[in-house]
Specification:
Elements lengths: L1 H6 L11 E4 L6 H8 L4 E4 L3 H9 L3 H7 L6 E5 L6 H11 L5 E6 L3 H5 L10 E4 L5 H4 L5 H7 L3 H4 L4 H18 L7 H11 L5 E2 L2 H8 L3 H13 L3 E4 L15 E4 L2 H7 L8 H23 L5 E6 L5 E8 L2 E7 L11 H9 L4 E6 L5 E3 L2 E5 H7 L12
Parallel strand pairs: 1-4, 1-5, 2-3, 3-4, 11-12, 12-14
Antiparallel strand pairs: 6-8, 7-8, 9-10, 10-11, 13-14
Helix pairs in contact: 8-14, 10-14, 11-12, 12-13, 14-15
């Protein structure tokens, strides 16, 4: 992991004040904070001995800091393991010490359940995502990303497939089972497989419940756990200035295309093109989500679907841009591929409309820019959407 992290600068820019850095395991939070704050006092809560000593006396944080008067940053890794430390940190912040606190975490669940108010608004909340294509540059390969995803811990491994297979087990063992999040780990494992069929689709919890043989309320709880562990997210319907009857349910995505592939069963009855199409849409989703988090302008990710099933995969809306995007796992642009974007243009002529596909040519058809997906992802950088007009 060291080589790929050293050779791949991340787009994340740290705030000058206290902040939480939340992201799934394997996105590189520890490595990033080590690079950004090499002289910081570090509290590693993945270390059992550290957790034991800090659990017994959380005020030990004050003592450690007092012994290092020149310290300017304190990094607490995986703070959800011991939320009580936040109370001590809050008191230290109130004392107006000239120290910046950085808290990393891979789960928001325990923080919220403990009633922690994220330091009373004194600390910003930031996210770290898997790699973006533009961070990898020439090292980005679309086919590889669709198979393995973009997690640094996977891409840096000698055997990426094995690490990806073990990734779910890491969460099931260290988070779900050890923290007692569910009564039955087996039911949760079946849920992971069942909901993989909803990746890139409008979410129907009743159908998922039937597939994994549990009731809907249990599935709702499982989905909340998945989101709290930052392993999945929902994309809501774009309803601003709605002129048509729209869908009401959100779409569902795993946070990384590789994690989706690790959960999605593949057998003789599963069409490879269908799985790869869902992976491609998810790969674009995770990039757009990262772009929204890393960019200014308060952008949000949505999708658009009318009750008559005319759909746009993604709508990015914010202060600095309004984009509608359709993703197609095909090498040619067909007239029917543009139908949803044309309907969207009738309601929102001010939007920029994109069709991302697997071909090699840039085409402008009826004010819709048809762009190779790989080219779009490589050009997508924080605060800079790809150029809409053809080159």
């Amino acid at each position: 992991m060291r080589h790929i992290m050293e050779s791949t600068p991340r787009y994340f820019t740290p705030p000058a004040d206290h902040f939480f850095l939340l992201g799934p395991r394997g996105t590189g939070k520890t490595w990033l904070t080590q690079r950004l704050f090499p002289d910081a006092l570090r509290i590693d809560l993945l270390d059992p001995e550290t957790v034991r000593s800090m659990s017994a006396r959380p005020e030990r944080l004050r003592e450690l800091l007092a012994a290092r008067p020149d310290t300017r940053q304190v990094v607490v890794d995986e703070v959800q393991k011991l939320p009580d430390l936040l109370e001590v940190a809050h008191l230290l912040i109130e004392e107006k010490r000239n120290v910046q606190f950085i808290f990393t975490g891979s789960s928001a669940r325990k923080l919220r359940r403990a009633g922690v108010n994220l330091l009373g608004g004194r600390a910003a909340q930031k996210s770290l995502h898997p790699f973006m294509a533009a961070e990898l540059g020439s090292g980005f390969q679309l086919d590889k990303a669709l198979r393995l995803g973009m997690l640094p811990v996977v891409l840096a491994a000698k055997d990426p497939k094995e690490i990806l297979r073990a990734y779910n087990g890491l969460y099931l063992r260290e988070e779900v089972q050890m923290e007692g999040m569910v009564r039955s780990v087996g039911s949760f494992s079946r849920f992971l497989e069942a909901i993989s069929f909803s990746h890139g689709a409008v979410l129907n919890l009743a159908n998922v419940a039937r597939e994994c043989h549990v009731n809907r309320k249990t599935v709702e709880g499982f989905l909340e756990i998945l989101e709290d562990l930052l392993l999945a997210f929902r994309v809501p319907v774009f309803t601003r200035r709605a002129q048509r009857e729209l869908a009401v349910h959100p779409k569902f995505y795993f946070f990384d295309a590789g994690v989706f592939r690790a959960n999605r069963p593949a057998g003789l009855l599963d069409a490879p093109a269908e799985i790869e199409g869902a992976a491609l849409e998810g790969l674009v989703a995770q990039h757009l989500r990262a772009w929204c988090d890393y960019s200014g302008g308060n952008h949000r990710l949505h999708y658009w679907q009318t009750r008559s099933k005319v759909e746009i995969d993604f709508v990015v809306y914010g202060e600095n841009g309004f984009h509608a995007l359709e993703v197609k796992n095909s090498v040619r642009v067909r007239p029917e591929d543009l139908r949803g974007l044309k309907k969207f243009a009738e309601d929102f002529p001010e939007s920029c409309r994109w069709l991302l596909y697997r071909g090699n040519e840039r085409l402008l058809i009826d004010d819709i820019l048809c762009l190779p997906c790989e080219e779009f992802l490589l050009d997508l950088k924080p605060d800079s959407f790809p150029q809409f007009l053809p080159r």
